[in-house]
Please model this.
Amino acid sequence: MKRSLNEVAFWLIFLLIGLLSLWIMESRWSLMMVHMESMDFFVWTDDYLRMKLAEYPGFTSLLTDFLLQFFRWQGVGSSVMVLLMLATVCMLRLVRRCLGTGVYGMEFLLPVLLLCVVPFSLSVHLTALFFTISLWLLLRWRHVMVWLLWIIVAPWLLVGSLQLMVVLLAAFGCLRCHSVGKYNLLARVLTGVVLAIVSVYAFNECLGYIPFENRWWCAPAEELNVWMFHLLFLLGALVLYIPVPRRLKIPSAIVVGCIVVVTPFLVDTSEWKRQQEVLQMATWAEQNEWQQISTSFSEGEVEHNRINQSYAILADWVMGRLPDVLFSYRLNSSEDMLFRNNSKYDCRNFNRKLYEKLGLFDESFRQSYEMGVKCRNGMGFAAMRYMVNYAMYSGNVRVVSQCLEQLSASSTHDQWVSRWYKVMDSMSGVRPNIPIHDSLPLRNVYSLTGCYPLGLELKQHINDNQTGKMALDGALCAFLLDGQLAHFADVLTNNFFYQGKSLPKAYAEAVVMMSASGNEAWRHLSRYFLVNPEYEWRFRQWQETMREGYYDASFKGTFWDYYARHFTPSHTS
Model:
């Protein structure tokens, strides 16, 4: 009766932990799961399979990438991670039965801690499952042939340090249960240690090069310290070897239950929260939910995550509000409007979207390619899909065919690839007219981007193409941020969009200051546009404060204040 009650209690806790973990991952980390697929790449080609098997350990690396491609659908990733955790719990329970110890609830400790510490490393959770399967196998089947077979297969599943750990833990368990003779056991341990060492060097010499520091003490997850990684595995297994008296089984179960339930809420996930926010911004940008981005941004976020500000600027830019709010953001030059020298995946993704909205599809293609280069396998599914889109919009059918041929070798893109093949068949060699932005036609003049400041790039783009308001505002705002007033006046007067119309805040403030500067070329600049007289009155007030030498906080967020702080020698210091 007691045993049946214990079984019922175990499976109730098992179900509760599974549902709780699934809820946490879906409510807090759902976008991160989809993001894991975006940075993954897997194709059924001989070269790729050989490359993954050459990594150490081979089958674990291959299976990791194979499963990650299914994370493309929301919910699948969370389910896979939770199922791996629960499978590890079941294997640890079988290990406990082989040892015959009454450790109540300790089976949940290692899997739950791994899920909380490294929830986005599928390879770590696969390693945990293979680690527990190996330990159970050597404890359950003590025949020498089983040990030898496992020693041959283990290098494809576990890194060398974990192989040694499994051999020693299994030997300790067999010795404790008096199931194997001492000399027999010593021979198995020595054989396991020697073959584990040989397997590491064999992989290094014959299959794929492994840096010396990663041959033994390495962790599959970058965010997990190597020592912490091994300590988690060692303690998670050793705790099963400690017998618990019956009188302490209830306190033991309560302690473990509290650890299991409370740990997910105590783990510091500030970095993951910031990453989740960035992914949310990127998702809204792909869905053209610009108003949502604008309302979700707060100025204080810039100190922790500058990319959130960049998405907020892009949202105002797309909605045509950027000239009115430009100097309310923390910007020092036009280069702060994008990530020119930052090669991180999220930054390249932002650049890709920015150039897409500007109609510079060839530059969007390049940014997509650099996104893929930053992925673990040298290319990512999301980057490849973007490259297909931009190559098609640019009419480069040859590149589209090459990308589709690679994606067709994956397991999850059959329908997506077939749809694009139908589009190519309907083209009949004619460039497709599939606009990305309603007001932007396809480019007919291709120029290098990334070689000049943003303002000059957009000015050239405006001269080469009949573009919409977004490129014009981008060039004008960039020139104001860089203090290039001559270029600002040239673009503003030679483009008919604002002539005879009321100027937005930033442009009106710049025109008023330029008209009062004494420059003959700019004296009559304000006559071409409708400038609210309030700006002229405010500008005179600002001049008075400058002459008197005190700072008026009411002018914060104006072009005059920005220009004085960045380009006036007496204030830049």
Notes: The two ends are 81 Å apart (CA to CA). The CA atoms of residues 285 and 311 lie 8 Å apart. The mean pLDDT is 80. Residues 2-28 form the longest helix (27 residues).
